[in-house]
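Researcher:
Attend to token order:
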Amino acid sequence: MTNYAIELRDVRKSFGKSEIIRGASLKVPKGERFAVIGPNGAGKTTLFNLMSGRFDLSSGNILLNGTSIQGLKPFEINRRGLSRSFQITNIFHKLSVFENLRCAVLWSLGYRYSFWERLNGLKDARQRAETILEQIGLIARRNALAGSLPYAEQRALEIGITVAGGADVILLDEPTAGMSRSESDAAVELIRRVTEGKTLLMVEHDMGVVFGLADKIAVVVYGEVIACDTPANVRNNSAVQEAYLGSPAHEEITA
């Protein structure tokens, strides 16, 4: 049985004549937290889109828990235990916080639309949604419309939606983007709490978040993974420093 939750094998993706991902390979052990960093345009979000099935591979292979997911649709990959968030907050603004979480839970439990079945009678879905509500610290906002929440709480809700289905592999795309330092610190604690025992990959530009949360850091430059190591080793990696030379990220990595 494989010890890897996600494995990328010489993954390539082209759009027309432009090759965006150029033979990326990566092995993510089960239960570890990986940060994916790199300059703007390096291909980080494209990798997430390939792993979650939004884009098809041009060549190579991606394995989820040892099984290829090549050619599967996003909902099929989700059913196999992978869930992701997006750079732009993706919630149901006109539903309450609780209803947003219940929607995610209903999908994961396999419920389908039924004219005769009342949602309030689905005890397992209600209990699971309540548990997530408590984990993300939004009990006091239970009945508030999601669209009325402050930005940081909307992001917390989206993280809750992402983990509500019980997936073992969680992809978070810039979870702290646009947050203040105090909001980012709270988000790190939230992410650490809700992904306990799960495998996490996150794209993140805030190096404080990266070094505070990640077990390993994968550095993507021009569509290739040029380094994958512990935060301390990545900080001192000459190839990583060269890739970031002259950028703010370089200054943060070497600070």
About this structure: Strands lie at 4-15, 18-29, 33-37, 59-64, 67-68, 82-84, 169-173, 199-203, 216-221, 224-229. The mean pLDDT is 88. The radius of gyration is 19 Å.
